[in-house]
Amino acid sequence: MFLTIDIDDPVLLWVVYGCAVIAFLYLLLRRPFARWLIPSLVALAAGSLLGLLVTWSVDALESFGPPMAPETRVWIVGAFAGIALAAVNLWRSGALRRIVAIISAVLIAATAGLGINAYFGLNPDLGSLFGINIDRPIDLPTKIQTTDADGRPLWETWQDPGGLPATGRVGTVHIPASQSGFDARDAEVYLPPAALAADPPNLPFVLMMMGQPGNPDAHPIGDVLDRFAAEHDGLAPIVLVVDQLGDPSIDPLCLDTIQFGNALTYLRTDAVGWATQNLNISANRTDWTVAGYSNGGQCAISLAARDPEVWGNVIDIAGVEYPGSENADEVLSDVFHGDQAAYDREKPVNILADHDYPDTVAIFTAGSDDDAFGPGVKIVSEAAAAAGMAVTYFEVPNGGHTIVALDGGLNGAFDVLYPRLGLTQGEEQSR
């Protein structure tokens, strides 16, 4: 299927990069070379300047929140330069060169898009790149009504029965928005190997949310937990990755609002209720974790702060400091109608200050070079510690705001949580 093409595949990327280089050289090396050299160089310079102007304008207007990464700027400037060179090749050219120039412009633009996507590493296929949920139905194991074995942890009571798959399984599920009416895309479930046994145990539960723009994709956390499961007889949490956005171009703030719908009720009621009814998960709050990355990180700490009786653990990876913090003035005006006090009440640091957390474990993490989101994560982690949560804070070396930070954050978080979740004895070693 076209939408399932793996756009992160290194071979595909290098083929596309190579084709773009060939197209660029074709456009540049035009006969007579001396005559066309100056117009070509002018076009490259003009295109580069236009690209720089576009990146500056986007940052100045905060169209996508925090400033662009340098790698993104390079790809955008390069794309504008290449497209400008293609435009020059439309002038006084034969039909063949004009056709090639048009195709080259499209190829150069697509190459830049793939390059930017590869840098962030969060959209593995075309469907996710364009925010299209690909239907991958999964057969869920029958819900087994059992109680946890005499309070003992799973690492003591569980034995690999043999025949378990080497890795877990990921697929899409539909969560009816019966209470919220929120128009969410289908969620994805990760079932670890132990969940696929003939007689599966009640496993810990993770509710996770990704960033914005983004998709409810369980593969990043599934890949991490597959590595843990391989070292622990197939044991890992069951994960439900839900869509807190509805539309990847819109941030509903993880709140119930007139403008964006009841995202908060969807998460607290519809998603949690569905998981309880359909998944073989533990009923103990200490086995329940709410996790998120970027926009989802703010959702995660907000849910944990609001509902300490539900969530025993929280993972905030490079989370936004508070709802709409990238465009706070606009959110204050459009959503809260200028009511600063009402806006402040929805900020995690203030929700945390109004509750006690005697038995909540919180992990906060960000890339060491994530200047846009890292400071906010630090602020919220300090507020969580002051409120009584058992906080672990760490930085992923040179993780940026990319898949490196997400993968490193999840690895470090489950190093902390695996003993807490009863999936291993003692302290874990960082991967």
SSE layout and pairing:
Blueprint: H1 10-28, H2 33-61, H3 70-88, H4 95-120, H5 126-129, H6 154-157, E1 169-173, E2 187-191, E3 205-209, H7 219-231, E4 238-242, E5 256-257, E6 261-262, H8 263-278, E7 288-293, H9 295-306, E8 313-317, H10 328-334, H11 340-345, H12 348-353, E9 361-367, H13 374-386, E10 390-396, H14 403-420
Parallel strand pairs: 3-4, 3-7, 7-8, 8-9, 9-10
Antiparallel strand pairs: 1-2, 2-4, 5-6
Describe the structure in your own words.
- The chain has 431 residues and is α/β, with parallel strands linked by helices.
- It has two domains: 2-120, no CATH class; 137-420, 3-Layer(aba) Sandwich (Rossmann fold).
- Helices cover 45% and strands 11% of the residues.
- It is built from 14 helices and ten strands.
- The chain has an eight-stranded mixed beta sheet with strand order 1-2-4-3-7-8-9-10, with helices on both faces. Strands 5-6 form a two-stranded antiparallel sheet.
- Helix 1 (10-28) packs antiparallel against helix 4 (95-120), helix 2 (33-61) crosses helix 3 and helix 3 (70-88) packs antiparallel against helix 4.
- The radius of gyration is 24 Å and the shape is globular.
- The model has no long low-confidence stretch (mean pLDDT 90).
